[in-house]
Amino acid sequence: MYRQVGFIGGGAMAEALVNGILSNQLFSPGQITVADVVAERLEYMKSRYQVAVTQDNAALAEASDLIFLAVKPQHIHGVLDGLAGHVRQSSLIVTIVAGINIEVIQNRLPQVPIIRVMPNTPVAVNAGMSALALGPYADETAGKMAADIFNAVGRSFVTDEALLDAVTGLSGSGPGYAFVLIDALADAGVRVGLPRQTAITLAAQTLMGAAKMVLDTGEHPAKLRDMVTSPGGTTIAGIHVLEQKGVRAALVDAVLAATQRSRELGNR
Ligand SMILES: NC(=O)C1=CN([C@@H]2O[C@H](COP(=O)(O)OP(=O)(O)OC[C@H]3O[C@@H](n4cnc5c(N)ncnc54)[C@H](O)[C@@H]3O)[C@@H](O)[C@H]2O)C=CC1
Ligand SMILES: O=C(O)[C@@H]1CCC=N1
Q: Could you identify the atom of ligand 2 that is nearest to the CA of residue 168?
């Protein structure tokens, strides 16, 4: 059982995870320390979540038995330089850094258990989607502990590390695509006469409802789409335009581009 949790990098994703962890009472604020290079960010995290804060990554690593790496990919090498010799072999490293292989981190932290995770920001509202890949020193207990955390803040599954770039392109970046869709649908609602806030609520609740139908029923989305689509009705008129404008191909291209970018971030 882990007692002290450290976050290296206290940005958007660390905040989403801290929020999810605290709201599910997986750990108390007193068990969490956040390290960042930006003092204002630490002040914010401290006052918002009552967690401890530090600018000293090495001290945080020495005091933590569960360490989240949550800096941008371009900063991970500098962070690893500073951690060498400060991470206990009994500690667990959970890296959420996009594109950076377990091997890269393992080379710098020999024999330390590492789990690489690709979560997404909805972990902040217990609706996250996370994929976990276990490094060579991460045993079943460590995997279960990490899965417990990510299951508490949404869904998770264990997969081969080779699939994590694709996961990044789909569900890691996916909330970004969904926000664009919601914003565009809200614009559309305003265009046809709805007040802005009403249009945003209609768009967001509709995407959430459709997603929930897919997950709850287990039906193929095409079958559920057919159930909305009356012959000669309104929905097929709308879907016809989506197909004409290439929305489907645009989404495929978006996931492809994000997956390729994830590979580039790891210089592969
Ligand atoms: N935002 C997202 O939706 C997701 C992000 N990720 C990954 O999570 C990681 C963090 O992403 P975000 O939170 O969005 O980025 P962010 O930019 O909001 O947060 C990164 C934080 O790290 C801090 N930092 C920079 N250098 C540091 C150092 N040497 N020591 C300690 N802290 C340092 C920065 O000041 C910043 O507050 C990235 O690697 C990203 O690929 C993974 C899944 C989803
Ligand atoms: O945009 C990014 O690079 C990160 C990784 C997945 C989501 N956000």
A: 6
Last residue of a domain, one of 119, 136, 167: 167
Query: What range defines the domain where residue 71 resides?
Result: 5-167
Residues of the chain short of pLDDT 70, as ranges, are 267-268
CA distance readout (Å), 99 to 54, 122, 161: 26, 20, 10
Note the pLDDT of residue 2. 80
Q: How large is the ipTM?
A: 0.98
Q: Pick from 72, 132, 177 the residue to mutate for probing ligand 1's pocket: most ligand atoms within 8 Å of its CB.
A: 72
The response to whether residue 98 sits with its C-beta less than 6 Å from ligand 2 reads: yes
Query: Which residue's alpha carbon is nearest to atom 19 within ligand 1?
Result: 11
0.80 exceeded by pTM: yes
| Number of structural domains in the chain | 2
- Of all protein residues, the one whose alpha carbon is nearest to atom 1 of ligand 1 is 13
Q: Is the dihedral of CA 129, 10, 259, 116 positive or negative?
A: negative
